[in-house]
Write the structure tokens for this entry.
Amino acid sequence: MNFSTFTKNQLVITQLNRLFNTLEVQRNELLQELKPYKTEVLYKQPAGKWSIAQILAHLIASEQLSVAYLNKKILGIETAQNTGVVEALKMIALILSQRLPFKFKAPRKIVDNTPVYETMDKLILDWDTTRTELKEVLKKFEDIHLKRKIYRHPIAGMLNIQQALRFLREHIIHHTPQIKNLLKQK
């Protein structure tokens, strides 16, 4: 397809859709990998560690809080400043922090807002709902909004929407080894 026939806003939608679809593929692959396991395996909590279900609940809570924040900040997006080199460097550091085997304490706000799911079906339903809400927020963006500081990461500070979506992907990448290790211990 010839990109010169796209309007700028169509290119934005394409860019955000690509990032969103990458997130969805990642999530679906993770859930497919967990599908064969019994509830006991997914909810088994080793001493002092999270269970697989708790890790997933943490990821969902993080995304839910992110979507709520984006919904609030989009209302004032016209006055938000653009990201630049500093935020690009912060994003590189953030990606490295998620890829290296460092342990971080989850931010208190996420811990306080992490639900306990009684079933995997409820967990998946909430994640589906959160992703639908994220997709709806993304539809509100226009080309002039792509670089706007609209997402607050607890450590990196204000980032743009593309960086926010990349962080959500990196967050899952960060927790995937934990999940795999728990599965090996089954």
Summary: The beta strands are 151-153, 157-159. The first strand starts at residue 151 and ends at 153.
